[in-house]
Amino acid sequence: MSLNNALTALGIDPKWEEPLQATFDKYDISTPQRQAHFIGQCGHESGNFKTLQENLNYSAEGLMKTWPSRFSTKEIADQYARQPAKIAGKVYNGRLGNTSEEEASKYLGRGLIQLTGKENY
Q1: What is the pLDDT of residue 1?
Q2: How many CB atoms lie within 10 A of CB 108?
Q3: How far apart, in Å, are the Cα atoms of 34 and each of 28, 31, 42, 56, 111?
Q4: Which end of the chain is more exposed for a tag (fewer CB within 10 A), N or C?
């Protein structure tokens, strides 16, 4: 099966065929199994190749469910709800190479793999 046909069967926009093929060639993702794993991981991280930047616009309930150790009570979560930059500061500052709340909100998950943090950028 061609890459274009595989992408179509998976509901992935054909515009990704050329960038994926270039990535496969550059990094020796040369077997169908490796390609399937790579596409599967990218699809999982990016909402089937549709989301290229992390969205931290969480409700208080979403914060508590996603990061229960950081938002252990509704009162704490309410202080951050629907404030993406503030949420980034709380969950990513002091991690992944981020040394300030500003860096934490700058280095959000991006790209098909959703790399997060200054170290990974």
Answers
A1: 79
A2: 19
A3: 9, 5, 12, 31, 19
A4: N
